[in-house]
From TrEMBL:
<keyword id="KW-1003">Cell membrane</keyword>
<dbReference type="InterPro" id="IPR003661">
    <property type="entry name" value="HisK_dim/P_dom"/>
</dbReference>
<feature type="domain" description="Histidine kinase">
    <location>
        <begin position="259"/>
        <end position="476"/>
    </location>
</feature>
<dbReference type="GO" id="GO:0005886">
    <property type="term" value="C:plasma membrane"/>
</dbReference>
<protein>
    <recommendedName>
        <fullName>histidine kinase</fullName>
        <ecNumber>2.7.13.3</ecNumber>
    </recommendedName>
</protein>
<keyword id="KW-0547">Nucleotide-binding</keyword>
<keyword id="KW-0902">Two-component regulatory system</keyword>
<keyword id="KW-0812">Transmembrane</keyword>
<dbReference type="GO" id="GO:0005524">
    <property type="term" value="F:ATP binding"/>
</dbReference>
<keyword id="KW-0597">Phosphoprotein</keyword>
<keyword id="KW-0808">Transferase</keyword>
<dbReference type="InterPro" id="IPR036097">
    <property type="entry name" value="HisK_dim/P_sf"/>
</dbReference>
<feature type="transmembrane region" description="Helical">
    <location>
        <begin position="12"/>
        <end position="30"/>
    </location>
</feature>
<dbReference type="InterPro" id="IPR005467">
    <property type="entry name" value="His_kinase_dom"/>
</dbReference>
<dbReference type="Pfam" id="PF00672">
    <property type="entry name" value="HAMP"/>
</dbReference>
<dbReference type="InterPro" id="IPR004358">
    <property type="entry name" value="Sig_transdc_His_kin-like_C"/>
</dbReference>
<feature type="transmembrane region" description="Helical">
    <location>
        <begin position="164"/>
        <end position="186"/>
    </location>
</feature>
Amino acid sequence: MYLSDWVRKWFKVVLVCLLIIFGCGAGLLWDNYRSEREADSRYVINQVRLQVSEMMLYLEQYNQKLYDDPMLKDTLQAMSQDHQVSLIYVQLDGRVMFNSSPNNTLQQIDLKASLHYDLYHARVEKNTYSIAFPVVDEVTQVQVGNAIFAMPASTVFVEESHTIPLLLFIMITSLLLILCMLMFLLRNKVKRDIIQPIHHLKEYSEAILKGNYEQKSTYKIMDEIGEVYATFDQMRMEIMYLSLRRDEQEKAQKELISNISHEIKTPLTTLKAYIEAIREGVCPDMPAVMEYVEVMHNNTDTMTRLIEDLLQHALKELGQISVTLTEQYSRDMLFRILQPIGHYVRTTGVTFIEPQDIPNVLIQVDANRLEQVISNLITNALKHTSAGDSIRVNIELTLGQLKITIADTGKGIIPQDMPFVFDRYFKGKLNSNPKNEGSGLGLSICKHIIEAHHGSISFKSVQGQGTVFHCLIPLG
């Protein structure tokens, strides 16, 4: 609303300014016309003097005889007709001595009302001008009367062409009209291409706030506004993806709790059943008892692993997985970690290929946490391999880092699962064996521990060929 109001007010201000410019231009043009008219009037007075100069000389020479000599009057009458003017000659007392108009019988006039020594627009006849000149006797050089000339406006004013000022006025008016049209076009364009798209974008934002992520924001033209729309739609898709991932994680968390509850209940039930069997004397001899004890021990390990996963995840969520880095040599530490794990892998029928040579370098590491990572990765590999497959461990130096590689020849990871391998609660879709199903927390915890060592973890996998995990730990 603010932008729309601003455009409307700005448009009104500009329109007022244009009207003021138009008014000032028209006023200046009219003032210029009047000034030219006044200048023309002064110029015309001089022209009139020249036009009637012959008659003025005649009056100055024969003013004393004019009243008694009809021939002088006839001559003066002819001169007035030749010059297309009307002449009234009056003495200083207002008595009319000569009148060229045959229908005028004035004998006396009021000098104050009738004498005008400048152009005067006559009230009696339209477009007729009168002007008076003093008559000075040629001999005595004394004013003896006044000559009042009346003439048509067409003979007084020489109309000048006003084409150029008129063209200028038309051009200014046209430019102002064009500017007004451009202003209207600009207003409509701003409203159509800026205000309305922003309003629509606001509606899309409100839809997202309400949880409607399916409403796609589209804009036909890929200009600046179109780029904003494209970026906004990418944001919408990202929010939709994050929302779906959050829902999936919440669902996975609920499934995790349900699965772990079930998985803990199963070994507990088994433990209880075997304990009851021993108490009731079902076992006939000591080897049978030891067999029962072995089963109970395995179920206890299962429960311990599940509880440890939950504990580690809870500590990770709270940021409390303690990683205490100490400087130590890599060869002895890694040998102590790999020896028991290799023995366990071989008991499952899977070939375990140990590293031929372990680099002996100083590294900053938490041995217990690193053992947890390696054990988790190998245990995870066992879940996706079967008898006859192999798990290979390789350790080497590369670019100032210790690189630990764990590769298997198992089922691999399907492409759809690869982006989510390190997400918490995630369990691959190929892991369909309930016996080997885990909590979905192991790889997430591994990533957290390796990053706490200022290192990185990555993987490559081909479905049906196996998976390779790489852990990089910087040297001390």
